[in-house]
Design goal:
It contains two helices and two strands; from the N terminus they run E-E-H-H. By secondary structure, the protein is an alpha+beta fold. The protein has a two-stranded antiparallel ribbon. It starts with 9 loop residues before the first strand and ends with a helix.
Length: about 70
């Protein structure tokens, strides 16, 4: 028997802050990043800065940064 844990989800570092996050790309609605509701423009802004997964805290901070930048 193997000692490798059988997890359906991968633990990865947030690309922005390095916090360990559980990536649930295969069940997006249960993923922690789904709690931050981003507009298409906010998604585009963030995707220009980062390629990988981000934690909900960083997504929220980047959303605020974008809104401040465009004056919302």
């Amino acid at each position: 028997m193997s000692n490798i844990p059988h997890s359906k989800h991968e633990i990865i570092p947030c690309e922005r802050c390095g916090t360990a996050i559980e990536c649930k790309a295969n069940s997006y609605t249960k993923c922690q990043c789904s709690v931050v509701q981003l507009s298409i423009n906010e998604v585009q802004y963030i995707s220009e800065l980062y390629d990988g997964c981000l934690c909900a805290k960083c997504l929220f901070e980047l959303q605020q940064e974008y809104r401040e930048e465009i004056g919302v």
